[in-house]
Amino acid sequence: SLSFPAQLDPALPLGTHYLPCFCQGPGFPGTHLWPRPDPGEECGARLVPGATKPEATEVSPNKGILSVVDESAQEIATCHSRNGNPAPQITWYRNGQPLEVPMEVNSAGYMTSRTVREASGLQSLTSTLYLRLQKADRDASFLCSVRYDLPAGQHDLLDSPPFHLTLHYPTEHVEFWMDSPSATGGWVREGDSVQLLCRGDGSPNPEYTFFRLQDKQEDVLKTNLEGNLTLEGIQRGQSGTYGCRVEDYDAAEDAELSKTMELRVAYLDPLELSTREELSLPLGNSTAVNCSVQGLPTPALLWTKDSVPLGSGPTLSLSSLTFDSAGTYVCEASMPTIPRLSRTQSFKLLVQGPPELRAEETQPRSEGSWREGDEVRLVCSARGYPEPKLSWSQLGGSPAEPALGRQGWVSSTLTLKVTSALSRDGVSCEASNPHGNARHVFHFGSVAPQTAQAGVAVMAVAVSVGLLLLVVAAFYCMRRRGRPGCCRRGEKGAPPPGEPELSHSGSERPEQKGLLTGGASGGPRRGSGGVDCRSSEIRERDRCGEREAETDE
């Protein structure tokens, strides 16, 4: 009988033979029961058949703050590989490169390793890395890799998750700068918000002190761990020397922990002109206008008229003024080195003088090509100051309006029909203001009359009327031929339907008899000039009576 507790492997099938063995070595004190495939196998033979893949690699990094000032190697991390067979190997990596560290303890770096055989017969390996750190290791990536064997002489790797260290190292350099959208060459615009930033290269972040130098004395503005100072709505009086100091007591004595910079506030005051907003001068005069400005840095001045550059400098000189000289003049002050910092001031120049007239005929024709009744549109434009009034010698002119595309001009239009009177007298346009007037006469030359055209029209009407009468007469004759004979004695043809029957009885009214019978001589009655004024029917009946009388004789 055995005097030690026997622990059987539940994963093995029933009937498995166990061999009691007394083993000495790391992790194997005392006597254990080991399974064996066949009875009679001696202690020391293969105990666990085949190779076993270890569990996932685990790493436990040092989560404390490690100082690079320490001159000895410090514990970096511990790597664990559990339940593998045979025992795996552990390799440490920094930034993807293997670390060649010995097993012996030294100040530069080393590692320790410990193998444990588990109760299952599998083996677990633990490795701890020690290194003397440097400032460059603040961004280094570390990991451990486990190499284990596979059947047929193969092997594979199991890497741990990468990790980083938190290091403490003193400040060696300090950076101090300004962050502003308008910052150019140390200049900022007045009214902007300016942020001063300070950064040291030590870890963890040190304390930052911001100050301003005034009369060689430090005026402390703010102290914080963020390393920033914001100046809201900065004014020109805040120009000066600003500084930042890093409070790091672990830094070397020769380390430069303070920086200064010059902050300059750019400003531009409103412009002032030597004239009023509106300047009125007579035609032909000369003048000079000055533009003054206060700003820092010194601004540049530019004169323009209608967006056209005229020249640079504070003085604008204008000589021999014309109406074209009138308009709006602008003085612009800007600072090329400071974006979006500029000001403008303008004045309006009015040139006084009598009107200047310009006339045009929108439908011009050569002399002699006008005919009576032709329509013409006349345009009269004028300029001057005060603004001239436009008038026409004929009625119908439109009110004066600003001329399109002509600054300073006003125009009026007149639409009329050409007549002989216009050909003789013309049409005049007059522009006037308190300084004088100007007049233009539109001439049309000779105007052809409309007589030829009127004769043609009358002839056409006459021909049309004649044709109409001819058609009516032909129609009437055709109807008369269709009646029974009217020339036989005693026979009276019935009148056509709808016509009144004429009577020769004594009951006729006197006026009817006068129309139907001749005068005292018995002849037919005619009007003056020998024209028979009787109706065609009466004349026909008279002719029938005459033929009957001849027959009786």
TrEMBL record:
Domain Ig-like: residue ranges: 54-146, 181-262, 270-342, 355-433
Signal peptide: none
Composition bias type Basic and acidic residues, residue spans: 534-553
Keywords attached to this entry: Cell adhesion, Cell membrane, Disulfide bond, Glycoprotein, Immunoglobulin domain, Membrane, Phosphoprotein, Receptor, Repeat, Signal, Transmembrane, Transmembrane helix
Domain of life according to the entry: Eukaryota
Gene Ontology CC annotations of this record: cell surface; plasma membrane
Compositionally biased tracts (Gly residues): 516-530
Protein topology in the membrane: Single-pass type I membrane protein
Example GO molecular function: laminin receptor activity
Transmembrane segments: 456-478
Record localization: Cell membrane
Transport in keyword set: no
SUPFAM superfamilies in UniProt: Immunoglobulin
Gene3D superfamilies the record matches: Immunoglobulins
Chief place where the protein resides: membrane
Subunit field text: Homodimer. Interacts with ITGA4:ITGB1. Interacts with spectrins SPTA1 and SPTB1.
Function: Transmembrane glycoprotein that functions as both a receptor and an adhesion molecule playing a crucial role in cell adhesion, motility, migration and invasion. Extracellular domain enables binding to extracellular matrix proteins, such as laminin, integrin and other ligands while its intracellular domain interacts with cytoskeletal proteins like hemoglobin, facilitating cell signal transduction. Serves as a receptor for laminin alpha-5/LAMA5 to promote cell adhesion.
Name of the molecule in the record: Basal cell adhesion molecule
The organism of origin for this protein: Suricata suricatta (Meerkat)
